[in-house]
Amino acid sequence: MRHDLWSNPCSRMPTTQFFNRTLQANKSLIGGNLAGPASANAEVLAIRRNDTNEEEYEMIIRQETTSDVEAITQVTIAAFRTLPVSNHTEQFIIKALRFAGALTLSLVAEIDGRVVGHIAFSPVIISDGTNDWYGLGPVSVLPEYQKQGIGKSLINEGLSSLKELGGQGCALVGDPNYYKRFGFKNFPELVHEGVPQEVFLVLPFNEKVPQGIIVFHEGFLANG
């Protein structure tokens, strides 16, 4: 199972009013700047391509800008096109999250001026009232750039940025064999209804683990 797997985690929806209040709290945390210029702490990495030429190149990970929107769509479509476990709605999910102002982080990986990868983080609601938790996904890398550490770099930079924003934890639906390297694991006391528990993984940023049900943003229901 490839690490860019992201299934639709949204099985039960909160009321719009409840989620809007949560979004306002998160916007105040990050200043509402969801599509600004590259951040000052954008990570720049030198990595090696896995091809016969062993060409070296520099990769920049930064916050998305408005000019990246179409490229992000195309990267997402390409990354999930051949995955049988995908509903192939990931590009619509990102669009819906962006439209709702729910992209807490939307990071791109750029090589030679080309967007080759993307990751999204959005707020979640936990039934016990715990705040400042986020959902990871979708995460996408162009097929010709996969297995070169780009997805790993996007995930690490995103998690680090969430911690800087005051985030308390992160949740996702994905391959446990891949995401365990980042510290994600299953906690029986925290569930996402409608999703097998073994692929619902969380990463607390401190020793406190919430208890109850996690609900992802309604944008994960988008299908067109």
Summary keywords:
224 residues; alpha+beta; Aminopeptidase; seven-stranded mixed sheet; three-stranded mixed sheet; 10 strands; 26% strand; globular; disordered N terminus
Describe this structure in words.
- The chain is of the alpha+beta class and 224 residues long.
- It has one domain: Gcn5-related N-acetyltransferase (GNAT) (Aminopeptidase).
- It has five helices and ten strands, in the order H-E-E-H-H-E-E-E-E-H-E-H-E-E-E.
- The chain has helices at residues 16-30, 69-80, 90-99, 150-164, 176-179, and strands spanning 43-48, 56-63, 105-111, 114-123, 125-126, 133-141, 169-173, 190-191, 200-204, 212-215.
- Strands 1-2-3-4-6-7-9 form a seven-stranded mixed sheet, sandwiched between helices.
- Helix 2 (69-80) runs antiparallel to helix 3 (90-99).
- The longest helix is centred in the N-terminal third of the chain and has 15 residues, at 16-30.
- It is globular, with a radius of gyration of 16 Å.
- Residues 1-8 and 10-53 have low confidence and may be disordered.
In total, the number of strands is 10
CATH homologous superfamily classification:
Gcn5-related N-acetyltransferase (GNAT)
The level-1 CATH class? Alpha Beta
Task: Count every helix, treating DSSP H or I runs of 4 or more residues as helices.
Answer: 5
- H/E element order: HEEHHEEEEHEHEEE
**What is the name of the CATH architecture?**
3-Layer(aba) Sandwich
Mean pLDDT: 82
Widest sheet, order of strands: 1-2-3-4-6-7-9
User: What percentage of the residues does DSSP assign to strands (E)?
Assistant: 25-35%
- Largest sheet descriptor: 7 strands, mixed
How many domains would you count in the coordinates? 1
Spans of at least 5 consecutive residues whose pLDDT stays below 50 are 1-8, 10-53
Instruction: Report how far the terminal alpha carbons are from each other.
Output: 25 Å
Annotated CATH topology? Aminopeptidase
Proportion in helices: 25-40%
Query: Which class best fits the helix and strand makeup?
Result: alpha+beta
Radius of gyration: 16 Å
Q: Tell me, briefly, the overall form.
A: globular
